[in-house]
Automatic annotation (TrEMBL):
Its main location: cytoplasm. GO terms for cellular component: cytoplasm. Its EC number is 5.2.1.8. Signal peptide: none annotated. One of its GO terms (biological process) is protein refolding. Residues 7-81 form the PPIase FKBP-type domain. It is found in: Cytoplasm. It catalyses: [protein]-peptidylproline (omega=180) = [protein]-peptidylproline (omega=0). Belongs to the FKBP-type PPIase family. This is Peptidyl-prolyl cis-trans isomerase. GO terms for molecular function: peptidyl-prolyl cis-trans isomerase activity. Also involved in hydrogenase metallocenter assembly, probably by participating in the nickel insertion step. This function in hydrogenase biosynthesis requires chaperone activity and the presence of the metal-binding domain, but not PPIase activity. Keywords: Chaperone, Cytoplasm, Isomerase, Rotamase.
Length: 155
């Protein structure tokens, strides 16, 4: 039986809760989540906990922020002029937009507050600073296809 290791395709069912017990995400009523182990497709703390597990294993994993989405950073919260949202009729807290990241990539920003001509945006990941609790069951482990290995994710 294959064990979870780097460069294996792993399928898991999971329920993710915060420390208050609120369900943040779950695969239970859907297809299992499939990922390429060791490719950074899931949070590092969960990937580490799954190493060496096999089909049929179940585990509860608590992941601290530094092994998940990092701590919250106040400097990632900015007030920007409304003009930066040209073409958007109504801007409301909680809306998500894609913006250019400092490194030229894409980052998601979330509208935190709306004033007359100023919009407060937060570029922290929504789960930054959160302790994540995973209830996981391993559903499948298989060898990746050459294309999956080449692309670094499951197809």
């Amino acid at each position: 039986m294959l064990q979870i290791a780097n460069k294996k395709v792993v399928s898991i069912h999971y329920t993710l809760t915060n420390n208050e017990g609120d369900v943040i995400d779950s695969s239970i009523d859907d297809e299992p989540l499939s990922y390429l182990h060791g490719a950074g497709n899931i949070v590092p703390g969960l990937e580490t906990a799954l190493l060496g597990k096999s089909v049929g294993d179940s585990l509860q994993v608590t992941v601290q922020p530094e092994d998940a989405y990092g701590e919250r950073h106040d400097e990632m919260i900015q007030v920007v002029p409304r003009e930066m949202f040209q073409g958007v009729e109504e801007i409301q807290p909680g809306m998500q937009f894609q913006a250019e990241a400092p490194d030229g990539g894409v980052q998601v920003i979330i509208v935190a507050a709306v004033a007359d001509n100023e919009i407060t945006v937060d570029a922290n990941h929504p789960l930054a600073g959160e302790v994540l609790n995973f209830d996981v069951s391993v559903e499948a482990v298989r060898e990746p296809t050459p294309e999956e290995l080449d692309h670094g994710h499951v197809h």
